[in-house]
Amino acid sequence: MPLSFANDTDASIPLHVVESDSLEVWLDEQPTKVSTWITSNGFSADLGSSILVPDDNGHPSMAIAGFGTHKQRRRGRFHLAAAAAKLPAGTYALANDLPDTDLATETLGWLLSAYQFKAYRPAQQTSETHARLKCPDGIDRQKVEALATSEALTRDLINTPASDMGPAELEAACRTLADTFSAKISVITGDDLLTENLPMIHAVGRASTQAPRLIDMAWGTTGPTLTLVGKGVCFDTGGLNLKPGASMGLMKKDMGGAATVLGLAQMIMATNLPIQLRVLIPAVENSVSGNAFRPGDILTSRKGLTVEVNNTDAEGRLVLADALALADEGTADLIISMATLTGAARVAVGPDLSPYYCDDDTVVSALEAAAARISDPVWRMPFWSPYEKMIEPGIADLDNAPAGGFAGSITAALFLRRFVEHPRYTHFDIYGWNPAATPARPKGGVGMGARAIFDALPDLLKL
To answer: Does residue 2 carry a pLDDT above 70?
Structure first.
């Protein structure tokens, strides 16, 4: 099913969006047969509800989407998508303004509600049974469709199992994206990582049957510069500090940071933002074999800092560190990393919020304003410098897994900050997975924070 608006020329059913508190007034304005039909069917305009009203021949003459109350809407997002999912297949056109909400966000939610991951269900791949929406007046069609398509890319990448989404396949996905938008791409693979001074990426990924690699994509020739760094751990066994089975089950999503920055990159390129974009993805699989890196090993990073490995299951920060050091050597106006980095972040804020770390209050202000505008919630976490001593083991410059378990997301972020001198550095510690279906967000892989970043870029980069 395409995540796009219906054709403007398609015949459509008028769709009225009505709050429950306004239903009685709205019914008074309708013909008697309409109000009688709605009342007799017990429709109360609850949030996410919908109903069709037939004409004299039994064909739908209009549809009503329940929009609940303002208080109810505060407890969720993508409310129009909830109603869209309950409407039968057909084409609909909004007949009134949406109350107290952002039309672009709600229409994006409608498009996203059509997303399904069907790659492994061939019989269902051609079925199109979703209600489609005409693009409402005042909506930037190209932008909203680009956001929907980019989110679908992120979801598809995360949802694909590691058997079909290892480092080589992630590279292939990057090359496809680069080809689509005429971006440049280069890849450093295997032992060449040592030659090119990316030793920690090599150390983490060398035990896999697929060689580790650093993917470097660049797009745009003028304007301010943005570098995105995404954790691309395509599967994480934990290494020699092997995860228990229950903790390994979702590890196909450990490349969620890479998937999310690729979705964000597609948003930027598809809307032709006037910037110079660079995307760095360390793509590895953290596996177990005779040459796996070990607890107690001391690694020397690209930056020259030494790292004592106290847990091979804290590998994401190691590969990100080398990639961030490389990013920091450039001339970016803004550096952003995204990673499914710590369970501690999930314990702190749950699966819906995108926790992030940033020392620049102007970046924070722009991000949080954008997140509120477009319903892509973020939550600032502290780069708490007094905890720096927790990541200093004494035998080396840094410890990749401090003992004690306290402040795990903060210490991971502090670790990454050691590799970036740039004052405008922001790190997102995302989950990348929706554990239960919600409107426009089915269970499975999901982008987090990308739309907020995209919406904030004009302010962040003075576009």
So the answer is: no
Token pair, residue 197, equals 């001074």
Please say if the pLDDT value at position 102 is more than 90.
no
> Residue 132: pLDDT above 70?
yes
Q: Based on the domain organization, do 292 and 347 belong to the same domain?
A: yes
- The SS3 assignment for 454 reads helix
Mean pLDDT of 161-181: 98
Confidence at residue 126, expressed as pLDDT on a 0 to 100 scale: 58
What DSSP character marks residue 21? G
Average pLDDT over residues 341-366: 97
Which run of H or E residues covers position 272? none
Residues 302 and 401 in one domain: yes
Q: What is the domain range of residue 367?
A: 143-460
- Which residue in the list 73, 141, 175, 243 is annotated as catalytic? 243
CA pair distance 145, 266, nearest whole angstrom: 11
Tell me the pairing of strands 276-286 and 213-219: antiparallel
Q: What's the CATH code of the domain at 58?
A: 3.40.220.10
Residue 114 and residue 147 share a domain: no
- Does 253 qualify as catalytic in the annotation? no
Q: What's the pLDDT at 376? A: 97
What is the identity of the amino acid at 372?
Answer: A
Q: Are residues 205 and 320 in the same domain?
A: yes
Strands 184-189 and 213-219, by their bridges, are antiparallel
Mean predicted confidence (pLDDT) in 105-130: 86
Tell me how far CA of residue 315 lies from CA of 381, 396, 412, in angstroms. Answer: 21, 17, 11
Q: What is the residue type of 82?
A: A
Q: Could you give the CA distance from residue 267 to residue 145 in angstroms, rounded to a whole number?
A: 9
Predicted local confidence at residue 125, as pLDDT: 63
Instruction: List pLDDT tens digits, range 407-442.
Output: 999 999 999 999 999 999 999 999 999 999 999 999
The answer to whether residue 122 scores a pLDDT higher than 90 is: no
> Does the pLDDT at position 1 exceed 70?
no
245: domain CATH number is: 3.40.630.10
Kindly name the residue from 77, 134, 278, 317 that is annotated as catalytic. 317
Pairing of β 433-434 and β 298-300: unpaired
Catalytic annotation on 118? no
For residue 5, tell me if it sits in a domain: no
Contacts of 47 (CB under 8 A, 6+ apart): 20, 66, 67, 68, 69, 72, 73, 76, 79, 82
Structure tokens at 240: 């020699």
Residue 173 is assigned to a structural domain of this protein: yes
Q: Is residue 3 part of a domain?
A: no
Residue 155: its H or E element: helix 141-159
